[in-house]
Specification:
Chain B: Keywords: Membrane, Transmembrane, Transmembrane helix. The complex is a heterodimer of chains A (193) and B (166). Chain A is an alpha+beta fold and 193 residues long. Chain A has two helices and twelve strands; from the N terminus they run ααββββββββββββ. Chain A has a domain of 30 residues. Helices cover 17% and strands 46% of the residues of chain A. In chain A, the strands form three sheets. In chain A, strands 1, 2, 3, 4 and 5 form a five-stranded antiparallel sheet that branches. In chain A, strands 9-8-11-12 form a four-stranded antiparallel sheet, with no helix packed on it. Chains A and B meet through helix 1 and helix 2 of A and helix 1 of B.
Chain lengths: 193, 166
């Protein structure tokens, strides 16, 4: 082979090595190749879990977001992972929230900007009381005063997740309630608005 | 053919120079700023308080596959600062070390309040610092504790006599 060609090949190998080094030093963050991998890596880096994934939720109004509902010892979490530039990256909710066994259910929430003065809310929790068959989240539209009710039936995984995307500040939260199979309120937490 | 070959050579060499500059900048920053632990210069902050007592520590504990090392303790008449190095195994999809959740507990059981911290992150981990208020009563040592979820680690930090008229 000609010397020039050998040099050229050598230099292309150098290019490949340098690009590899950029990835290795995280100068070009690549993220995980699947939502599951990113969720697992996010938890291990956070020194939490590994949690038992009880439900994987593909967010209906955001195809680039997946939420993993899970439990780990005395904690529950709803970990969001996001797809960007072809890879999956960690988001909020990886931090486990303590299950308060003295209460019928434990909950947490998160609101993230979804562009254009819109906020995407994630309201989630774990139901400790076996009598609770349905979880209900009550809100009202600020401008019309109309009530907004979100309901979820509790299954074996004992967790609930409410997702909604609205204009920032357009709703007031009233209460989160746990109802038994006869629709009787077992436990309610009101929000002071 | 020859024109394509020389165009490729120019492209190839431009890419190499570009990548070398980026990587060189990254490595030089790590080497030169090895004292850097965040946005503010911690030593400058400490010297502003007056006299600084320095005690090297160099003790570590593991958190899963990662290692936390308390490098040194600095004490002034206003604060106790702990500098640390955090080395992580996992390079991608990583969270920064939760330094503000580190607790400092005195032998008589007082938990000191952490009021500020800073860190510089790298692909392998971070170097940072956390500052705490002084204890109510003089103490010759303090326990640095990491206690999150079911992970736990502790290091005993020696202190010069602090708390009263240092």
């Amino acid at each position: 082979m000609k010397k020039k060609t050998l040099f050229a090949i050598g230099e292309w190998i150098a290019v490949a090595l340098l690009i590899w080094l950029c990835f290795h030093e995280n100068l070009i963050p690549i993220g995980g190749s699947t939502p599951e991998e990113t969720h697992r890596l996010s938890e291990s880096s956070f020194h939490y879990g590994p949690s038992e994934i009880v439900r994987k939720v593909e967010v209906p109004f955001d195809k680039d977001q997946v939420i993993f509902l899970g439990t780990y010892k005395d904690w529950f979490s709803a970990d969001s992972v996001y797809r960007k530039r072809g890879g999956w990256f960690p988001g909020g909710g990886v931090a486990g929230v303590e299950i308060d066994r003295d209460k019928a259910f434990s909950y947490s929430w998160e609101g993230n900007s979804a562009g254009d003065s819109q906020i995407m809310y994630k309201f989630y929790g774990y139901v400790s009381d076996d009598r609770i068959a349905t979880m209900e989240l009550l809100m009202t539209e600020k401008d019309t005063g109309k009530p907004v009710q979100m309901r979820e039936e509790i299954t074996n995984d004992r967790m609930f997740l409410f997702l909604w995307k609205i204009k920032d500040g357009s709703r007031d939260w009233q209460a989160i309630r746990g109802l038994d199979k006869d629709n009787k309120v077992i436990y309610e937490q009101t929000f002071g608005t | 053919m020859r024109r394509i070959a020389s165009a490729l050579t120019v492209l190839r060499r431009t890419i190499i120079i570009f990548l070398v500059i980026i990587l060189a900048a990254y490595y030089i920053e790590q080497w030169v700023d090895s004292g850097k632990r965040g946005i503010n210069d911690p030593m400058k902050e400490l010297k502003a308080d007056g006299a600084v007592a320095t005690i090297p520590v160099g003790k570590s504990f593991a958190i899963d596959n990662d290692t936390f090392t308390a490098d040194a303790v600095y004490v002034t008449n206003k604060q106790i600062m702990v500098t640390y190095t955090y080395r992580m195994k996992q390079r991608k999809v990583s969270w920064s070390f939760p330094e503000m959740s580190l607790k400092l507990i005195t032998p008589d059981g007082q938990q000191l309040t952490s009021h500020s911290g800073g860190s510089s992150g790298f692909s392998w981990g971070a170097r940072g610092n956390v500052s705490y208020g002084l204890p109510d009563h003089p103490a010759d040592r303090v326990m640095l504790i990491y206690d999150l979820y079911d992970r736990y680690g502790e290091i005993e930090l020696p202190l010069p006599k602090v708390g009263e008229g240092t």
